[in-house]
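Posted in: Protein Modeling Q&A

I'm a second-year student putting together a small comparison for a lab meeting, and my supervisor asked me to include a predicted structure for Autophagy-related protein 9. I've never done this before, so apologies if this is the wrong subforum. The sequence is pasted below exactly as I got it from our records. If anyone can share the structure token output, I'd also love a short note on what stands out.
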Amino acid sequence: MMLSEFFELIQFLFVVTFTTFLVNCVEYDVLFANRAVNHTGQGQNPSERSKVTLPDAILPSQQCKQRIQENSWIIFLLIMAAIFWIYRLVKVFCNVLSYWEIRQFYIKALKIKMNELCNFTWQEVQDRLISLQREQQMCIHKKELTELDIYHRILRFKNYMVAMINKSLLPVHLQLPLLGNVVFLTQGLKYNFELILFWGPGSLFQNKWNLHPKYKRSGNRLELAQKLSRVILLIGLANLLLCPFILVWQVLYAFFSYTEVIRREPGSLGARRWSLFGRLYLRHFNELNHELHGRLGRGYKPTSKYMNSFTSPLLTVLAKNVAFFSGSVLAVLIALTVYDEDVLTVQHILTVITVLGVVITITR
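Accepted answer (user: helix_wrangler)
Welcome! Here is the predicted structure, written out as tokens:
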């Protein structure tokens, strides 16, 4: 867990640095051979003098630095990225302290060594925790803990989310023209719900488990509703202001993360997965993450078979014909490449082959 958070910080630094380098420090006219490069030196063949090498397309560090300093937008974005990275660094540091306490609790209190942890089931860990409560009375409000008490504490906020989805209290259903009723629940929207309701400033909970006493009095309902409305408005404005930066980050992260996967396994584009709304709607109360994942995993095959029964004949005919035309062009290009590999040197030929392969995979 500590390593994952550490590498998330490194990934963020890499994406920001690498993107800044690509925007400001690469001479694309040289890279795309729009401008000739002439290497002068003894013992070089005439054909090698005009050959473009990677260092030719990279600007000197001084010129690169000057480009960055002259671009006020780049400076602003780098400052915003630095502020966010420092915030993440502080959060990671706090999490590391929490992880260390958990580690010490497992070793000293539960008597589970780190090299043995992978051999323990959750039920065994839970049994040790219940036995420890009988011996040391960690929780002072109850003499004995039960499995249900542990689940309630871990899943307090998850249970609230499941209940609100089941009761249709969260605004995740949208009525769109032509499309009708559409469910819209993304990770960003879920994050905002949790920020407003559970752990953000002005949330309903005063700490990680206790509801504010004022929310338990019905006489305060109107006043608290107005306060919650103001909090939602402020967070909505913050989302609106940060939207361009979040969009840029998500596009860059998705590009760096999934481009190689799509090139290697284009079939992953057509793979089905449980939606975020589906995971919450199908989740039981007091169901831990690993239990939910196991149950959804067992239901994946029958669910895919059920979804495949709803086919559109019109879409099937269109997909078959698109696959035929794309496959015909791709077959000719592959045959020409096998006959003479110099075909690959033709401009954009590799791009066309890759795009056609992706199109065929999607239509299949």
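A couple of things worth pointing out for your meeting: The chain is about 65% helix and 0% strand. The chain has a mean pLDDT of 88.
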